Amino acid sequence: MPKLEIAATSVEDVLNAHKGGANSVEISHDLSVGGLTPSFDLVRRACDTCEIDIHVMIRPHARSFVYDQRDIDQILEDARKLAQTGIQGVVFGALTLENRIDVELITRVVQAASPLPVTLHRALDYSLEPEHALKSLVGVVPRVLTGGPANTAWEARAKLADWVTTFGNQFRFVISGGLKLEQMPDMLEEVRAHEYHFGSAARAGDKVAVSKVRALCTAVSAPKTRSL
Known about the structure:
The protein is α/β, with parallel strands linked by helices. The chain is built from 8 helices and 10 strands. It has helices spanning 11-20, 40-49, 69-82, 103-113, 130-136, 157-167, 184-191, 210-220; strands spanning 3-8, 24-27, 53-57, 89-92, 118-120, 143-146, 172-175, 195-198, 203-204, 207-208. Helix 5 links the parallel strand 5 and strand 6. The chain is globular. The relative contact order is 0.16.
């Protein structure tokens, strides 16, 4: 059965996601720009408050997925610190100046975050030759969060289905990108991903809503979904 992940920016969000039945949360700061590295105080309080799988984004700025040496130093330091917090994983993505997945930097982050697993962030969606990138990351990251090469996951569902079919034994695919509750029956049937990640669809105003998480949980666990 696919799992449900909710984007969280506060301890209250984490608690509400848990109450609604989510399997995991991704903690970040400022969802309006796609998420940035949150404060370590928030991460520690979330770990102390709620028993749910927690993934934490590492993203120092929203200008691009290309990072200079100062950024890289901060990224690696954040990865080392997060490895000591009790979370279940970190989420990170990077591109080279040529707009290809920066496998070298991602590998360094994997090493810095060890023993935590690293989820490839949506940098993949903006990269050249994403299929080649996925091949190069087999054995490096176990989990890929993606909305595919389109404005939304819904628009990219055919390509996402191809990626899941081709690489689904090498990675856990977490589908994210403007997903809506009413789209889930078709997404589940067509894409057959391992996990689905929701941001605005799980929120009422600026907070995660328990009732919306419950509805999404019901939708993701719909019986028509084929097993992976």
